[in-house]
Every structure is written in structure tokens, then in C-alpha cells.
Amino acid sequence: MEEPIVKVEHLSHRYSIQWAVRDISFEIPRRGIYGLLGSNGAGKSTTMNIISGVIKQTEGQVFIKGIDARKRPVDAKRHIGFLPQKPPLYGDLTVEEYLIHCARLRWVADKDIIPAVDEVLAKCGITHFRKRLIKNLSGGYQQRVGIAQAIVHKPDLVIFDEPTNGLDPNQIMEIRHLIRDIAKDRTVILSTHILTEVQAVCDHILMIEEGKLVFMGTVDEFDNYIIPNSLYVSMIDPPVADELAKIEGVLGVEELGNRNFRIRFTEAQEVIDQIVKLSAANDWRLSEVRVEKSSLDNIFAELSKKAH
């Protein structure tokens, strides 16, 4: 059986007397984009820093492709690329000089350094800036340089901590596209507190709140964490709300205005069938009926309660 790319066992970390992360365990078995979600101060960055080897955990173990990151940190780090919230850039170096420096730090063989740098320059769309000083690049292109240094040594695992922070909408779209491209042949962990970022980019979600893992699953499983219990119904010539409330299986009716209603139900399909049937019989002129899914914000709030 193939080793998971990341395996975390009973991970805890304490700053002074306060626990930032408490008894977290999870595995990342395959390629894809895994979103590490949580509010500010939830423990995301601490978890990322421990996995990437920036800090040592107080308790627990981290394995990278079966390698104990605490006992064999150099071997583990060969498989990891990391972009922290603030890219570790040297503004007085050119893009090419900086990436050559990073390749040497990652023990890329001398004969492979220039081909490796050429490859990441092309992949990150910054070949035309190779001779430019990093300090003269825009924020979006500096972020691309930061991503390039994280993949110059061809790691199996790439960790991005808030990679679109401070970028404009166009730059955000470009970085998201680049992250998806990188994830085609390696595993990506993306740490963020922005729900739409997770929905736009990730395949799987791990949610940390108050240092505890409160959810792990696919994006679809996250979206459906709260079971829908209401219908959105729109009619051109609707009856009064009391009449809708009498339909079998209806628990309550809320008027939303403009001939729209929110109808709470016990079983969706039975109530939908009744509404369609009664609308045709009474000429209510039904124009829309759909199950309402909980918003991402509501799901986030509900999961956050599990940490208390």
C-alpha cells in the first residue's frame, strides 16, 4: 500500500502557555488541492509551519511520504515546497539570480539548476522578467516568483499560505489558475480563511477552528454538511401563505416578497410534487421551485461551533 503524501498524528503545539493546535490527526493520500480552512488565529499557519518544517511541534508526529519530519528533517524537506504568507524574496536580486540561489539551497544538482529555473520561469509566466530586479516587480509578479521558488526542486508537496492575500481580482484569478496547473502533477495544500477561495480552487477541505480539526472531506461534502430543509418557491399568482402551510409535509411558510416564498419541509420531493400538482389545479402559475442549500457562511459558522 502506497504511503500517504502527508500523515499527521496527534499534532499539538503550544506558544508559551496557550495551545495553538491541539491533537490534530489527518492523512493526505493523493494528488489534488487540499484547502486548509479556518478563521484568523484558528491554527492554520501553525499547522502549515510544522508540516513544512519551519517550527517543531510540541507533541505528535508528521510524516512526509513516510519520512518522520522530526527525525529526518532534511530528507522530508526535499519533498516539500513552501510559500509563506510573506514570500521570502530578496529584492536586490534579479528573478533568475534568486531562483538559482533557491535551487542551490534545495540541493538541486549543479547541472540541473539552469534547466530547473527555465522550467519554473515558463510555468509561472515570468520568463520575460528573468533579468529584472525583484523589487521592481508588481505584487502579483512577486507572488509568482514566490511560487516559482516553491516548485524549483520539483517537490511532491507544495504548501501555500494565503497565496492571494493583497492581490487585485485579476491577479487572484491568475494565481488560482497557476495553482490548479501546479496541482496536476503534485499535491497542493492551500491555507486560507476565505470561503470563496476554497470553493474556487480546492478539491478537498480540512477545517481547523480553535486549534482543532472540525471537518475533513470533499468540497461537495462540505457544501452539503447542513442538510437542506427549505424550498424557494416563486409563483405569478400565488395563494395566501396560510394555504401553502396546509400542504402535507410543510412545516412552515415565510413570505419573501414579490410573490416568493421559503417553505420548510419534512421531505423535499413529496412537498415539491404537491406544490406542482396544486399549482396546476389552482392556476398559481408556478415559475420556480428549488431546494435551498445552506450558504458557505452558515456551514462555516455551524462547523465553528464544534470547536467549543
From TrEMBL:
Domain ABC transporter positions: 6-235
UniProt superkingdom: Bacteria
GO molecular function terms listed in the Swiss-Prot or TrEMBL record: ATP binding; ATP hydrolysis activity
Keywords assigned by UniProt, alphabetized: ATP-binding, Nucleotide-binding, Transport
Coiled coil ranges: none
Entry's family note: Belongs to the ABC transporter superfamily.
Name of the featured protein: ABC-2 type transport system ATP-binding protein
Species this protein is from: Butyricimonas faecihominis
